Amino acid sequence: MLPCCRPADVSVCDSELGPPGWREPLDCVRASELCNQNNQCSSRYRIMRQCLSGGDKERSAMLASRECQGALEVLQDSPLYDCRCKRNMKKELQCLQNYWSIHMGLTEGEEFYETSPYEPIHFSEEFRHASIISGRRMSPCSEAGKPCNPCLDAAKACNLNETCKRLRSAYNSICSKATPPQATSANQEPCSRKRCQKALRQFFERVSWELSYPLLFCSCPDQACAERRRRTIVPSCSHQERHKPSCLELRRTCRSDALCRSRLADFHMNCQMTPHSVTSCPHDNFHGCLMSYVGLIGSDVTPNYSDSSPSNISIGLWCSCRGTGAQEAECDTFHRDFTHNTCLSESTDAKEKPAEVTADRDLLQQQIAANANRILQRCINTPSFC
Length: 386
Prior knowledge:
single chain, mainly alpha, Annexin V, domain 1, two-stranded antiparallel sheet, globular, GDNF_rcpt, GDNF/GAS1, glycoprotein
């Protein structure tokens, strides 16, 4: 699977894809195979899977046991500890389950933000994507006398591509199909939500982002356009319920699923605001944040536009922090990662107006270097800052 790996070096292998000196992590499917070839690792791996079975209370008690702690200690020296997964790889779910078979034991009930199981999005890759976005931008707003509707342009571009048109029609059909009347009840969903979410994931995983992103992040001249943009992912079926659930309950549901848990951790890692960058995004990587945001669509934690405002764009989750009592502060922190996230808002704004942010790669690199120097000087002058 990774031919450059040597038996003596099972955690990482050299890669020509990343920057000089970077080593590509072993994927967790291969890491599991290597672990199963070793009797000690294999036996501890089986024990660890048993430790993580059952409900939250049972799992916490099991993880505290001497046997589970011993298994975890051995596995931290195995290929599984440093393994990672590729986005949309063939055995992605299996890879992610293997990753959490160790890391869920390390973080259960302790960390608000978890480390992403996915390989990092490299800086050079972000610049390459940004240049493609800038080069492909064909907004009618730039042509005098012609109507200005980038969202309509995005829909037309999708319809001209066979894969985009087919998968977009597929998810719209599935997500718009009502549940048969005889099968409905007071607590039942008005559509097949799981099928809708799966169809949405397939669209964003299989359609080139050059075609899918403009559908989500196009700029709108009026409220009617903004409402159509909000309905792009068919919110009435994909994530909205009759009553808004608690945001903490939404997070708990997400973390019980390996795929959703991974996408949420990836979002937090790539979109978490930081003061140590020009753009407030980690490593000034707009595209990394956008990729992680889109990765959540079709999960239990599906973000979307909060309203139909064409100018004051607000993004959030379909959940509430009312009635969370002593956990209200924790709930608000989680919700504000979407509603008050400068990195996320700047990323979506950069997608709409890429030339303002990414037109000149050298200029952005100079800004980042200057910012790094400013932070270094502040660290020297005020050690407590660092």
